[in-house]
Amino acid sequence: MDGKTIHLPTRHEYILLHKRRDTIVTRHEQRGRSTVFEDVPDSRPATVAVGRLDRDTTGVLLLTDDGELAYRLTHPKYGVAKRYVAVVEGFPNEGAVIKLARGVELEDGPTAPADIRLLPTQDRRRARIELILHEGRKHQVKRMCLAVGHKVRSLRRASFASMEVGDLRPGQHRRLRIDEIRRLRRQVGLDK
C-alpha cells in the first residue's frame, strides 16, 4: 500500500477483558471518556469488541480481529448465551419473574424467553437477579427489568459464550487459550 509491503498477521487475536465501570466500548472516543481499549493498549488496530456493554456495566467482554467469529457470537440466530447479574430496586414477585422468563414487550418488540433466577441477597431493598439471554439488544436487561417495575441499580455480565473473567480484576485482560478459542468457534459452527 502506497509503495510499502504490508504483512498481515498469520493468526487472529482473542482477548478476554474484565470491563470496568465507566468505560466506553469503542476504539475512538471524542469526548475524552475512558475506553475499554485503554485497558488493552497492545491490541491490534483491527481488533473490535464483540458486542457492547453500557458505560456502567461491568464484566466479560471479548475482543478479537476475527470478524466471522465476532459476527456469529453476536447474531441472535446463533443463540449464544449471555449471563447477567442485575441488582434491582425492590423484589420482583412471581408474576414479574414469569414475565421476564417468557419475554416482555419492549418498544422495539417482544424479547425472547430468558432463564431467570432470583439470587440470595442481604439487602432488604434490592434484589439480585440472574438473567441468561440469547439475544442482545441495546440496554436490554435494564429495559426488561424496568418493564416489570424494577429499575436496575448495577449490572454485570457474568459470562458470555461460557467465558468468565475468573481471577481478572476490573480493567485486566488476558489472551484466550487455544482450547477456549476452539470452544467459542464450535459454539457458532465454525469448528466442526
Question: How does this structure look, described?
Answer:
The chain is α+β, with helices and mostly antiparallel strands and 192 residues long. It has two domains: 14-75 and 163-178, 2-Layer Sandwich (Alpha-Beta Plaits), CATH 3.30.70.580; 81-160, Alpha-Beta Plaits (2-Layer Sandwich), CATH 3.30.70.1560. The chain has four helices and ten strands; from the N terminus they run βββαβαββββαββα. It has helices at 67-74, 94-102, 140-147, 178-187; strands at 14-19, 48-49, 58-64, 82-89, 105-106, 109-110, 115-119, 126-133, 152-160, 173-175. The strands form two sheets. Strands 1, 2, 3, 4, 7, 8, 9 and 10 form an eight-stranded mixed β-sheet that branches. A two-stranded antiparallel ribbon has the order 5-6. The longest helix is centred in the C-terminal third of the chain and has 10 residues, at 178-187. It is globular, with a radius of gyration of 18 Å. The chain starts with 13 loop residues before the first strand and ends in a 5-residue tail after the last helix.
Task: From the structure above, extract its key features.
eight-stranded mixed sheet; 2 domains; 10 strands; two-stranded antiparallel ribbon; Alpha-Beta Plaits; 192 residues; alpha+beta
The general outline is globular
Q: What is the domain total for the residues?
A: 2
Please report the number of helical segments. Answer: 4
CATH topology of the largest domain: Alpha-Beta Plaits
What is the name of the CATH architecture of the largest domain? 2-Layer Sandwich
CATH C-level label of the largest domain: Alpha Beta
Uncertain runs are none
